[in-house]
Amino acid sequence: MNLRAGLIFLVLGFIGLLMVMGAVSFVRWLKLSYPRSFRSILVVLCLLLVGAGVWVYMEVKERPVFHAGDLMTLEEPVVARVIPADRHAPATSCIVEIYEHLSVVEVHSGTLKARVESNNRSGPSFCPVGADVQIELAWLNHFTLTYRH
Fold first, then answer.
1. What does the DSSP 8-state code read for residue 33?
2. What angle do CA 109, 131, 96 make, to 5 degrees?
């Protein structure tokens, strides 16, 4: 294990310890301040915490899962970076127009690599058909995904 990972685990452990100490102190304060109803208050707080956890889980699960070969139809224009064939060539940007199709190549760390399958517009600012492009997943808001397995 390297030094950076050790420091990260040390900081996370310290933050976890602070959270546990805060929770224990909160329960003690609740017992002293509300001796008759502290159990019901704790039950309600635990139910709220579980409900928030379920809500976050459902939001995360609702995100689409991209697989290689899936067909994506855009419902809004998106700016993409063209992946050059030559590594030393400068990166250029292009526009993928609305209702155009992209074939998913791979997804890696928040970036979608795709191949342009259709483009009705021509011009230097629009992506040519067959070009490999990169799109940040945060930029994709409105699209339709068709699984091709």
1. H
2. 75
| Distance of alpha carbon 73 from the chain centroid | 19
CA distance 130 to 30: 64
Only one residue has tokens 């940007």, namely 93
Sheet containing 132-136, strands listed edge to edge, beginning at the edge strand earlier in sequence: 92-96, 78-82, 132-136, 111-116, 101-108, 71-74, 143-146
Q: What is the pLDDT of residue 16?
A: 97
**Length of the chain counted residue by residue:** 149
Report whether pLDDT(149) > 70: no
Q: What percent of the chain has pLDDT over 90?
A: 43
Greatest CA span in the chain, whole angstroms?
74
Tell me the average pLDDT across 57-83. 87
Are 69 and 148 in contact, with CB atoms under 8 Å apart? Answer: yes
Is residue 38 within 8 Å of 28, Cβ to Cβ?
no
Grouping H, G, I as helix, E, B as strand and the rest as coil, residue 137 is helix
Band of residue 57 on the pLDDT scale cut at 50, 70, 90: very high
